[in-house]
Amino acid sequence: MPTGPPTADHDEADLRVSEPKRSAAGVPGVVASLRHARAQLGPARAARTLLAVNQPQGFDCPGCAWPDPGPTAHLEFCENGAKAVAEEATLRRVTPEFFAEHPVSELALRTDHWLGQQGRLTHPMLRPAGEDHYRPVSWDEAFDVVAAELARTAHPDRAVFYTSGRTSNEAAFLYQLLVRRFGTNNLPDCSNMCHESSGVALTQTIGIGKGSVTLDDVHEAELVVVVGQNPGTNHPRMLAALEQAKAGGAVVVAINPLHEAGLQRFKNPKRPRGVIGSGTALADEYLQIKVGADLALFQYLNRRLVELDDERGDVLDRAFLAESCEGADELVAHLRTLDPDELLAATGLARADVERVAELLATRSRIVVCWAMGITQHRQAVPTIREIVNTLLLRGSIGRPGAGACPVRGHSNVQGDRTMGIYEKPAEGFLKPIDQRYQFHAPRAHGYDVVDCIGAMRDGHAKVFVALGGNFISATPDSEITAKAIMNCGLTVQISTKLSRSHVITGEEAIILPCLGRSERDMPHTLDGSEVDGGRPQFVTVEDSMSVVHRSQGSRPPASPHLRSEPWIVCGMAAAALPEHPTLRWHAWACDHDRIRDEIEAVIPGFSDFNKRVRTPDGFVLPNGARDGANFTTGNGKARFSVDPAPEWAVPQGSFLLMTIRTHDQFNTTVYGLDDHYRGIHGERRAVLMHADDMQALGLVERQRVDLVSSYDRERVATDFFVLPYGIARGCVATYFPEANVLVPLHLKAEKSGTPASKSVLVSLRKR
Ligand code: SF4
To answer: How many whole angstroms from 89 Cα to the centroid of ligand 1?
Structure first.
């Protein structure tokens, strides 16, 4: 039988520590998946629902954005995908009765884990100004409140419209249209906090802000470098792709401050050796680098490629450099000026280990480099990614089979949302077709990204906050400032499936608009709420990390008859808040996703015959010049080398460089459970991982309780953490977000991209 939600938040005495795992998935992963699904759904529903995940006629996993291998196998999900689906399809409900019983002030003391475990939201809810309880309202009443508040704003830029990466293409396209028709580009999204650095660096160097590989390229690579990424937890099906690449003779190099189980060995539960054998060894080389030292490492490696080319004459791909690149000579000259010993020292790595990796890079040309937040959430993330692109260009490893850049997206449609126009800095090339088709002049002034919108709300420049999905309050840095900023708003609106802290830390007035989940049947409704006669279940579309657009259609009965699809909710808000306009057909779009796709086809390049092509089993791939034969869309058709100075890093005495990480029981801010079983930490999330010698130097013992303190413009404290010895480089520590986000100042962000630098925060430890 499915179990009920927890009544109490967790007890601190539960902390248990065991040996970290040396392999990922396997039978334990299957057991964990089924146990979680059964607890939320019961065995029969769990089986039916999981069999539909990532299937051509099924629904897309609401987890990460790793692509589906074609042809799709029957069981096409990982442990964390199963948890994500089970959490969304849970039988637990958060009803008006729940809100009547629990005042917001009490709920605000709860953790995201406890709130998330209460279940699915069932009704539109309003928390009037000055009241401590939400009460149910009709959709029309809710839309009228939003419309009235937007009408009261002195200027469109005083409203902010946030998007989380779970939002479908159809909802994202309509949302940007609503927001631009309202008159602002205040469209921050979760991409600002994750791969914005990748988008900026790749657009500068290869002309497109997306990865340049297909799944087949990963399978066919000779060398796969996985840097600043923990796929075993954050993109688990990638392990099957690494296993396939290894079967084809590929070498895998892992670069990570932590020795992660999912980079060491993969026990594929679909293979006998993954069930009864030892599985597949993954990393052939494992560089346990210091936190934030990746730029130094790739500069060292690129300098070695130049030196090896001096010796051998065949390491740099001169034909490719001449034909397809610019700036190679300047880069080579720059690299020769760098001090290799200084670069190496910054990495904390042994020369021999790094030399072996340099040799691998020098002798293979089908090279794929994969990365994630461990690269993008640093102050020097953009130069680091440019240096990675330098490596690939020097070897001619972009725009050919088995080679390229592979930023792995952490949210199922975060790339699709950006393609649909969810961006605070839209290009003229995107806005012009909007002007032409919809006969209004879209705003040109750039809007707020995530960090800027928090500052604007804190300072009273923005008074309305609307979130299409996500858990803004927990996902963002500088938690105390962000909470004050949100509470400084007149109105906050959350379009959500489940309860989170973003529903209990709110503006003066707050609205919850409950939407359908991916796994649920979406029957067309008109904006007056009636189901369309003869209507057929609808599907939405998403775009994965490798630019594949495919459909997602849920079949489970909705958690409540009051739920509506995201596109319907956006149309409802728009019809209520915006003046009538002949080209903006919100009523028609609300009840027919095909019509929305016709609009997307008319405005966004690469979507011709959208409705026809997306109905094919594997969907279709969007154009990508860098991937498709090194046709770089950089203005002169050439890829650009980048020359960046060597990083200057000094960690003051007594301080440590902290990186925030996820447990294996978490997806972004959704906390499925309190275990991090790959790292051997159970029952507790307030744990800080530290090198045993650093603990000894500070006179700390295992499980000692400390506060973590960052001291930038002022002191920020994350209280009451257990210190645990762990295999991490000296001078570095790691702990989990969102608990540690309070330590990250708003201004600590990546240059050029504005991504919060949550992976390199200077902290000290204060004994309690
Ligand atoms: S790898 Fe990502 S998309 Fe695939 S099932 Fe797992 S969480 Fe879902």
So the answer is: 16
CB-based contact 169:565 (threshold 8 Å): no
Mean pLDDT of the 229-251 span: 98
Average pLDDT over residues 619-625: 97
With a 6 Å cutoff on the Cβ, whether 61 touches ligand 1 is: yes
Q: Which residues contact 323 (CB under 8 A, 6 or more apart)?
A: none
Task: Give 177-204 pLDDT, tens digit per residue.
Answer: 999 999 999 999 999 999 999 999 999 9
Burial category of 480 from C-beta neighbours within 10 Å (exposed 0-12, middle 13-18, buried 19 and up): exposed
Question: How much is the average pLDDT of 2-25?
Answer: 78
Q: In degrees rounded to 5, what are phi and psi of residue 709?
A: -130, 125
The two three-digit tokens of residue 204, written as one number: 């500068």
Mutation choice for ligand 1 from 50, 78, 413, CB with most ligand atoms inside 8 A: 78
pLDDT value at 641 more than 80: yes
Does position 102 have pLDDT exceeding 70, yes or no?
yes
Secondary-structure class of domain 93-186+414-525+561-596 per CATH: alpha beta
Separation between Cα atoms, residue 550 and residue 547, nearest integer Å: 10
Burial level of 247, CB count in 10 A (0-12/13-18/19+)? exposed
Token representation of residue 81: 């995908």
Q: Tokens in use for 569?
A: 């909710």
User: Per-domain residue ranges for the chain?
Assistant: 26-88, 93-186+414-525+561-596, 196-408, 651-767
Query: Residue 765: is its pLDDT beyond 60?
Result: yes
**Whether 136 contacts 124, CB under 8 Å:** yes
Supply the pLDDT for residue 629. Answer: 87
Name every residue whose Cβ is closer than 8 Å to that of residue 587 and which is 6 or more positions away in sequence. Answer: 526, 527, 571, 575
Per-residue tokens: 661: 């990480």
Q: What SS3 state is found at 283? A: coil
CB 306 within 8 A of CB 621: no
pLDDT at residue number 645: 94
CA 334 to chain centre: 34
Please write the tens of the pLDDT for every residue from 697-712.
Answer: 999 999 999 999 999 9
Give the distance from CA 134 to its chain's centroid: 30
Amino acid at the residue 596: I
pLDDT digits (tens, 9 = 90+) for 148-176: 999 999 999 999 999 999 999 999 999 99
- Identify the helix (H) or strand (E) that includes residue 723: strand 715-725
Q: Do β-strands 280-281 and 285-287 pair in parallel, antiparallel, or remain unpaired?
A: unpaired
672 Cβ closer than 6 Å to some ligand 1 atom: no
Q: Before 71, cis peptide (omega within 30)?
A: yes
- Residue 96 contacts residue 138 (beta carbons within 8 Å): no
Check: CATH 2.60.120.10 for 651-767? no
Task: Calculate how far, in angstroms, residue 725's C-alpha sits from the geometric centre of ligand 1.
Answer: 30
CB atoms within 10 A of CB 608: 10
The pLDDT assigned to 721 comes to 96
**Does the pLDDT at position 1 exceed 60?**
no
Token pair 């919100």 is at which residue? 586
Q: How far is the CA of 61 from the centre of ligand 1 (A)?
A: 6
Query: Where would I find the H helices in 542-686?
Result: 566-577, 586-590, 593-603, 610-613
**Domain over 196-408 is classified CATH 3.40.228.10:** yes
